[in-house]
Amino acid sequence: MGEYSHISHTFLPVYDENSELLILGSFPSVKSREQGFYYGHPQNRFWKVLAAVCHCEVPRTIEEKKSMLHDYHIAIWDVIDCCDIIGSSDSSIKNVVPADIAGVLQKTKITRIFANGKTAGNLYKKFCEESTGIKATVLPSTSPANAAVSLEKLIQIWKEELQCQ
What we know:
Layout: E1 5-8, E2 21-25, H1 30-35, H2 46-54, H3 62-71, E3 74-78, E4 80-85, E5 94-98, H4 101-105, E6 112-116, H5 118-127, H6 129-132, E7 136-139, H7 151-162
Parallel strand pairs: 2-3, 2-6, 6-7
Antiparallel strand pairs: 1-4, 4-5
């Protein structure tokens, strides 16, 4: 399977003072770490799903992705600041140091938090929920590892839950 590496998150959360909802992943994949931005694996459906939810074009560049997030008052980050991990395997994560989610909430209008997948939801509940006082709604993961859920089904579920304007 590979060896553990101690990895620190290398890119910042995306938010501004007008952010109203936060979508949390667990920790960036190898591809995302290589690109220096969220959901960088070409098979990850996050950007397709979010564009469908927001009724806009799928962003391609990092700047287009940031712009879309700001336009729809969406913040994104990961629950983990650093951890030991094998490759991109969420199931291998150990020795977690959580991100300062509560610190970001103080600078925004965020009142709703969503976890992109069960691992992010479980990690948030374990490490962050008490400090934020907000329960996270767990959404089905957009990861290519979650192939059991079709793109159409992901879009339907995410639309119902996020209710973006």
